[in-house]
Amino acid sequence: MRKLLVTGASGFLGWNLCRAAQGRWDVYGLAHRNRNAIQGVDLRRTDLTRLSEMKKNLQEIRPDAVIHAAAESKPNFCQLNPVESHRINVEASVNLASLCADLDIPFVFISSDLVFDGLKPPYKEDDPVCPVCIYGEQKAEAERSVLNRHPRALVCRIALMFGDAGPGAASFIQPMIEDMKNGRDIDLFTDEHRTPVSAADAARGILLGLSKTKGILHVSGLERISRFEFGKLLRDVLGIHNARLSPCAQKSVKMPAPRPPDVSLEITRATILGFKPGSLRDELENLFCTHLTSYN
């Protein structure tokens, strides 16, 4: 089989990508912070900010494609640590794209819906980027530089993801579930809207894009929903009917990184390619069907 190299393999999206690719690809993974074993994946510890280490891995593995999922993805951290986060989110991304361009290796860069300001949704691939936080600025800068250096690369802008936590990283729903189980108050925004997508669907969309297109591709769910409405749906699916969900507004919670109000993505291009995300309820029910008793 052809070889696929996934950076950030022990992270939330990376782990789901590695699982989705197995059977069709011989999967290799690069990880830095966490190095929990992933069944069926040749996982290697690497610091992507070191150009020599990236070169060494590409020379040894000789991948047929690279998906760059590694990132410092916490907006508040990026806002407070712009220099450190720039090294991984921009510099390492562009360096890896350059190496892949020189070796004629297909390259996928994972970006975010947070490259938009949230004022004119839903956003299409050719809408101008307009980030409001440093994380979004870094992703937008990396997009431009990656495509300039590797014109045949694919940039996948991914919406808010949820799904199986894996051994090394969790999505936003895992702490929410713990709070629900333990009866803690959960404040959720009514004025922040996204088009969430399960990590399993996101991984399938990314792999589909890798095989069929280049440029920019939006990968998200079909349903525009607020954080508060998503919390109510999660509560209902899990049957935790006494969950203490409280609606609130973005301005009531002080955070380092500004948050856009609505970065819903439009995914016509992806659906033409064959991408078919499941409904939020179906994806949550599928995710928890074997675990429901532990949440009640």
Summarize the structure.
The chain is α/β, with parallel strands linked by helices and 296 residues long. Helices cover 40% and strands 18% of the residues. The chain is built from eleven helices and 13 strands.
Question: Can you put this structure into words, describing what you see?
Answer:
Helix 2 (about 50-60) runs parallel beside helix 4 (about 80-100), helix 4 (about 80-100) packs parallel to helix 5 and helix 8 (about 225-240) crosses helix 10. This protein is α/β, with parallel strands linked by helices and about 300 residues long. The longest helix has 21 residues, at about 80-100. About 40% of the residues lie in helices and about 20% in strands. The strands form four sheets. A seven-stranded parallel β-sheet has the order 3-2-1-4-5-6-11, with helices on both faces. It contains eleven helices and 13 strands. It has two domains: about 5-160 and about 195-220, 3-Layer(aba) Sandwich (Rossmann fold); about 175-195 and about 225-260 and about 280-295, UDP-galactose 4-epimerase, domain 1.
Which characteristics define this entry?
296 residues; alpha/beta; UDP-galactose 4-epimerase, domain 1; 2 domains; globular; disordered C terminus
Can you tell me the residue ranges where pLDDT is under 50 for at least 5 consecutive residues? 290-296
Radius of gyration: 19 Å
Strand coverage percent: 15-25%
The CATH architecture name of the largest domain reads: 3-Layer(aba) Sandwich
How many structural domains? Answer: 2
- Sequence of strands across the biggest β-sheet: 3-2-1-4-5-6-11
